[in-house]
Structures are given as C-alpha cells and as structure tokens.
Design goal:
Helix content is 32%, strand content 0%. It is mainly α. The N and C termini lie far apart (71 Å).
Length: 62
C-alpha cells in the first residue's frame, strides 16, 4: 500500500485507524484464488421438500 495523506481536516488517530482498516479489508491479494463453496453446505438442502406427486394426494381424499 502506498502512503496515506490527509489533505483536509484534523483526523484523530482513531479515525485514521478506522480508515486504514476499511481500506485493508477491501484490498485482497490477487494471487489468492477465489474459494468455491460446494452445494453440500447450502442450508436450503436441509429444507424438507414435497415428493413428485404429493399435489395429487392433497386433491383427492383417501
């Protein structure tokens, strides 16, 4: 990262630290590959689903 210079105002050390932290979060090294998450960890997979012809059983009483 290059040098940081405040042009206007009188920033406190806490404000400068917050600015540096925000800038460091947004900067990600380019050599890090993007990690792909598998669909096995998708929370929607844990949801219960209807079976293929359950609509038919709900329309016709037993």
């Amino acid at each position: 990262m290059t040098h940081l210079r405040i042009i206007r105002g009188d920033a406190t050390p806490e404000e400068v630290a917050a600015l540096v932290a925000a800038l460091m979060i947004t900067k990600r090294p380019a050599d890090q590959p993007v990690r792909k998450v598998g669909s096995w960890s998708d929370p929607a997979r844990r949801m219960r689903r209807e079976l293929p012809s359950t609509w038919r059983a709900s329309a016709f009483p037993h």
